[in-house]
Amino acid sequence: MEIINTISQLRERLARHRDEGRSVGLVPTMGALHEGHASLVRRSVRENDVTVVSIFLNPTQFNDPKDLERYPRTLDADCRLLEQCGADIAFAPSVKEIYPEPDTRRFSYPPTDSVMEGAMRPGHFNGVCQIVSKLFSYVEPDRAYFGEKDYQQIAVIRRMIDDLGFKLEAVPCPVVRQEDGLALSSRNSLLSDEERVIAANIYRVMNESRTLGLPVQQTHDYVVDAINKIDGLEVQYFSIVDGDTLADVSSWDDAPSIVGCITVFCGTKPIRLIDHIRYK
Q1: 29, β-bridge pairs
Q2: 186-278: which CATH number, 3.30.230.10, 3.40.50.150, 3.30.1300.10, 3.30.70.120?
Q3: What is the distance between the alpha carbons of residues 261 and 223, in angstroms, rounded to a whole number?
Q4: 34 catalytic, yes or no?
Q5: CA gyration radius, the chain
Q6: Domain spans, the chain
Q7: At what angle do helices 7-19 and 124-139 cross, to 10 degrees?
């Protein structure tokens, strides 16, 4: 596996591959890789001739400087994992390489980017669109792979792909969970062992809510109340939405696909965890 730090070198390497007719897959990451990321990389390796994995902690999608500061940074371990998974190129640029000048572009795709994470983290999805659009332009992939744990992010990126006319397939990949149901996340490394056990209740409660046969509002209230009763957990939001538009639903008949998206603070620090569950 080759580690590349500059855009010009990346483009040069990929031009050679394209001249030979090879397909290219891209897995965008912010590093601190785990088995969830590894599953995306392995899928890209299966489905493409060349797999590029970006490792870039993107500052423009953090509206809280403290959150950016404590995000895990594990580049050496990340590269070892990528090599084991069969990746061909790890693209690990500096912030100055990606943003030699401030990126002043503005992206707006309501309601997809204005609800839930968009409402709680102003500017977050604008930063996501800035970096992902840059990566698409550098790599020009045939396919790009995203984990479904960040459910809303995939919906926003799809809107951006249509808006900017990128010729690629955005491939959503299933959430990878621990045996107790906790969704794998880079932020999990910030949890203590005790907090990890507590955090597993997030998915447990959402899963239970699917079996109760309650109306939408009562399902919402059950999840929020049950999680908030657990010492060490506090729900920031839980939204039950159309799986495509992310608009709120009031009835299970409102949309063919319905998803519950949640963000919960865990522990005394606290660590912000996101997850989702499909109701239909």
Answers
A1: 55
A2: 3.30.1300.10
A3: 11
A4: no
A5: 19
A6: 2-173, 186-278
A7: 50
Q: Quick: pLDDT tens for 105-139.
A: 999 999 999 999 999 999 999 999 999 999 999 99
Q: How confident is the model at residue 278 (pLDDT cuts 50, 70, 90)?
A: very high
How far is residue 194's CA from residue 151's CA, in Å, rounded to a whole number?
Answer: 27
Of 17, 34, 37, 220, the active-site residue reads 37
Pick the CATH number of 2-173 from 3.40.640.10, 3.40.1620.10, 3.40.50.620, 3.40.50.11740: 3.40.50.620
The bridge status of strand 50-55 relative to strand 24-29 is parallel
